[in-house]
Design goal:
405 residues, alpha+beta, 19% strand, six-stranded mixed barrel
Length: 405
Amino acid sequence: MILSRNIVLSLEILSAHKMRTLLSIIGIVVGVGAVVLMVSAGRGAQRQVLDRINGMGSNLLIVNAGRTMIIAGRQRQLDTVRTLTVADATSIAKECPLVALVAPIVTKKLSVRWEGQDALTSIVGTDAAGLAIRNIRVAEGRVFDAEECRAAKRLAIIGPTATANLFGTVNPVGQQVRIGKAPFEVIGIAAPRGMDVNGLDQDDVIIVPLETAMRRLLNVDYVQSVYAQAKRIQDMHNAEKEITDILRRRHRLEGKQDDFTIQNQATVLETERETTDSLTLLIGSVAGISLLVGGVGILAVMLMSVRERTHEIGLRRAVGALRRDIRNQFLMEAALLSGIGGITGILIGLGISQAVSVLGYLPMAPSWDAALAAFLFSIAIGCFFGFYPAARAARLEPIEALRSE
């Protein structure tokens, strides 16, 4: 009963000074809203990065020829190595029981022509397993099969960006394009895939059978990468070790450094998740500093309230109110100020996040746990900064307080 009476009394007092109440909660509203908005942006960015990694394929292990390193946020090959072959991919498929699918990959940017239109496009050579591993689907037409790959047919699946660059609004399926000097029949339009984790457009690509690319376009007997799909996500680290052992034995690397680099999707996902979590926490913490400004505003307003209500405090003490009753009353007012500001800030932050996400300006992922944490922190801020004015009001002597009128 005492708590409910204090809440009702505090609301009546706050509503009697609407402008002062509004000014005191603005800082809390801005602080909580900023925390919710920044955390939503951070979570949205994290989801986008993780979706791009998962979009490359599931349970994926990428064996790259030579050494690679992340430079300026992109995977870079440090040296050119020609020891990774189709035979290596075949051995991995036969000797690694934890791997479900294996596909060699070759890629190079080449000039593509169609009826006077030219475009420099990434040409990717792979087989039917590579299409499955990379989750490559067609929006129109069809994909090539294993038999067409073995026969080195001149077939092409063209990405949406390459389609727009070469054909404009013309349907490319059934058309012939010239890649380098060789003619290819377009049999399908790949479904949109967007950017990869390195910021490269996965839709600006033409996919052709592996044998065709190696023999008729690039004239090479080696591959740049081998994609391996583990049977289960729990098997990825053991599968990586098996692949390493197989390649070291085939390449005769006893006592030497690896001439290949294995990129484990599980490790990449975990690293990206940790990085984005840390960044989101940092951004949220910086935004949370504005809550301290809101707390200072509550402190100033509560000190002003104590000074204005000195006679009321003296009167309540004179009729039997205890010091703790006075302290609890002012603490309740501070908590209500911060609580109202916190709820308002949450609604504004979530509303802006939703609007930005719907309009497509930024990837946003509204976070209710961050909203709850910001609300509880705002309550704590209100109680912390309201404690001194509440204690000061409780220390007033009744006679001295009554004389202030």
